[in-house]
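Take a look at this chain, tokens included, and explain the fold to me:
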Amino acid sequence: MPGVTTLPVSSDLRSGHGGEGADPGTATVLALAWSAEEPHRVGEIAVILPSGPPQVLGRGEGETDEARLRFCRQRPGALGSGPGLAGAGLSRRQLVLTAQGDGLVVESVGRCELRVNDLVCERAFVRPGDTMYLRRQILLLCTRRAALIPMVRYFPRDSWGDFGEPDAHGILGESPATWHLRELLAFVAKSATHALLVGESGTGKELAARAIHGLSARASRAFVARNAATLPPGLVDAELFGSARNYPNAGLPERPGLIGQADGGTLFLDEIGELPAEQQAHLLRVLDSGGEYQRLGEATTRRSNFRLIGATNRDPSALKHDVLARLASLIELSPVASRREDIALLARHLLVRAAQQSPEVAGRFVARDSAGRPYACFAPSFIDYVLRQPLPGNTRQLEALLWKGISKATGSEIVAPGEGASQPPAGRAATAAVPTRVVAEPSADDIRSALAAAGGSVGKAARALGVANRFALYRLMKKHGIGGEPSQ
């Protein structure tokens, strides 16, 4: 499933808002990628605002006088507050998180072991792209994204679908990029322009084309799809425009051609950039407003009221400039790796889809929770592994990794290669795969010296020691028998 970066078709969408409301800016976000006790909450996020106080992550509701990290199902125009996390293995005060730059200072203050990028630590600086695993409880992905998804104006409410599931047009994801894509596709659907979809292999270009068709006034008419790279050389015109009966040889049937078949509907030409330049030139007349063309072997002209949606993984400049000018709506589909918070949802969807095709997969790796909701049986090591893969093949590569995991699984969970992905993922250097900093805990003497230098101010002493906050320092003071009570 794709994300989107640009659409140079309209001034009200060019800014990237796609709807009402101003962009509130970016924030560091934790996305729930795996949960032992609440698998239905995968995809929820918690926002850590840069100017806010340190926030506590833990089980249940916690103390009323502390800033509590809340996970919610973020959708356009709203950032709600969900219930506290479940999990008997989580402490009520498990992590203390403080925004710092584009990342977080994370301190483990509870009983559950913390792993950051598969390294056990008590305190670390977590950057976007890093994962945090609380042993046998939850897996979190740190990312940087818009704090609020803007309201959508064009994508209809009755097409949204349930949270974390494909929408009415098959597009899956809850990231701002995916919602922006939905809005852009719906905007283009309401226009009459021909369109070009640009993106890497596996980013869902045909799915996006079908969404444009389904959201348009042409939805009840034909959607004709063809890979332009498979059109036989020398027969491109016959395939596109059709041919008269008995042409070029007697006994041959009439051929309507792709453009004729798509009259009133949509013609999707995947890999349109593979058409030779001279064949691209043959499209110019039919792409004009009249839709005029001739079948081979006929003297009269015909008209087709069709919309062309082309797709390519090449630079758009590879197309003839006059063809590109007629594909007035240009949408760039971003790679899956640029919206990693959707990966866990994509993996779940791909597994459920595989289970529909294979009873064995369904029996082993798809279960139901106490409310009867189906969920995928992934080990956290698998999700952690794919979250940190470069995924140049996008959803196709993710699906290949899924089937590899299925083929190697010996139990009822799909695990990562090597049981835990302890090695840095291929294509990523070890320093990038494990960008954490473990800080030694200050000694009793260090604490006493810092308190004396700070004139007894626990907050100032905490900052001098590099401790996350004064509450963390109070915990250390209690551990070493150093006097002092938390201020109310």
